[in-house]
Every structure is written in C-alpha cells, then in structure tokens.
Amino acid sequence: MLSSLALVLLVTLAASDAMKDPESLQSEMFPPIHPNCTQSLTDYILLRQEVQLSKMAAAEEVRTQLTRENLQVLTQVRDALSQVSETLTQRNQVNGNSVVETRRTCDPPFTPVGASCLLLSLGQKEDWASARQFCVGKGADLAHFSDAAGYAAILDYINKINSQNDMVDVWLGGTDEALEGTWLWVTGELMPRGTPFWGSSDGYEAAPDGGRSQNCAGLYKRDQYYMHDFRCNGSAAPLCQK
C-alpha cells in the first residue's frame, strides 16, 4: 500500500514539472549574467583601448621629436654651406678672381686632348727619329703620358682620327736606347710599365720584349694600340704633342 502511494506521488510531481512555463525552465538552466560582470568586461575593454591609444600617442610624439631634430640638423648644414659659399665668394671678390672654366686652346691642325694638343699624321709614315723631327718642326714632340687617364685620352683621339681603321702603327716619344731596359720619355721621365699600358705579342710575355734590337716605343695597331717596343728604323705614323 505504501509503495503504491509513493509511486502516485512521484508521478504527480513529474507532471507538475512538465507543466511549468518553458521560460521558467530556461531561467533555471541558464541564469542571466550579473549586471556587475557585464560592467567589468566593458571597463576592461575601454581600459585596453585607452592604454593602446596612450602608447600610440607616445610613439607619435617620439617620431615628431626626431623629425624636428633632423630638420634642425639639416638646417644647420644648409646654413654652414651657405656661409662657406658666401665666404669663398667674398674672397674671390676681394682678390679680383672669378671662377671661370678653362679649356686648352690649340692651333690647327692640333686638337685639344685633355691638357695637351695632339696631332696624328696618318700619312706621315717614317722611322722614329724622322717622326720626332716631324713633330719638332710643328713646335711639338712625340707624345707621352704619365697615367692611365692620359693613355685612355690618347687612345680615344687615335681611334677617332683613324676612323677607317687602317692598320697604322703610331710612334710615341719613348725609348731605352740610352740604357737597355730603362724606358724613358723624351721628357726624361720614366715610362709607366705593365698593364694597362704595355701589350703582348704572343698573349703571354708582356712587352717590351725585343731586347737590344727594339728600342723605340709605339702603339701597335694589331694589339689594339697597346704599347710595344719596335725597331727604331721601322715605319709608323708620328703622334705629336705640345
């Protein structure tokens, strides 16, 4: 009898729970977020944003300061250069000097090349001594140079004059007749040795390599106008310089 009453009681309670409002059941299963919790989350987000904005503002201030400092340095450099330029101008005015571009002027048939006047006479093929006399008769001497820049300027001039690319060798004012192996310009200065000045006949042994039989220097057309030692009684065109 007691068991039957207990069973009836359990069924009645279950039925009453099933008849409850669904919203009431949802409220019991998922209780609402406490208002204080929502407010705390909002405050946290706002605080993070405020911190980020503060960092960005500080970084921007640093960049602005660096820009100001760089501008100040550039201004100082500009003012210093202006002062130097003004000082130089005043000195030139006091001394009566003026900055004028100077160019070498050469009387025809000579051509200005660097700081010199050159004349290549392609049709005047003579031995070294006669070629030198030809240049002396023009108020000049056989050409010489002291560095690679001077050599390059001479090569450029020769290639322009010899536009037909004729196989013509060119005499220079260099010789070792006075002392074998000691190559001197007609000015008494030592000639440069090695590359990029002297060439090679066989691609291996560098000129000068002719010994006592070849004592006069010239530009060898077959070796792209590198310097070689020639027989002084050979035939080549004089390159005059003054």
Description:
The chain has helices spanning 2-18, 22-29, 35-95, 128-137, 148-161; strands at 111-113, 116-120, 141-142, 170-175, 184-185, 216-220, 226-230, 237-241. The protein starts with a helix and ends with a strand. The protein is 45% helix and 14% strand. The protein has 242 residues and is of the alpha+beta class. The protein has two domains: 33-100; 111-241, Roll (Mannose-Binding Protein A, Chain A), CATH 3.10.100.10. It is built from five helices and eight strands; from the N terminus they run αααββαβαβββββ.
Short summary:
This protein is α+β, with helices and mostly antiparallel strands and 242 residues long. The chain has two domains: 33-100; 111-241, Mannose-Binding Protein A, subunit A (Mannose-Binding Protein A, Chain A, Roll). The chain has helices at 2-18, 22-29, 35-95, 128-137, 148-161; strands at residues 111-113, 116-120, 141-142, 170-175, 184-185, 216-220, 226-230, 237-241.
Mind summarizing the main beta sheet?
8 strands, mixed
- Average pLDDT for all residues: 78
What is the CATH topology descriptor of the largest domain?
Mannose-Binding Protein A, Chain A
The number of strands is 8
| CATH class wording of the largest domain | Alpha Beta
How are the elements arranged and paired?
Blueprint: H1 2-18, H2 22-29, H3 35-95, E1 111-113, E2 116-120, H4 128-137, E3 141-142, H5 148-161, E4 170-175, E5 184-185, E6 216-220, E7 226-230, E8 237-241
Parallel strand pairs: 4-8
Antiparallel strand pairs: 1-2, 2-8, 3-8, 4-5, 4-6, 6-7
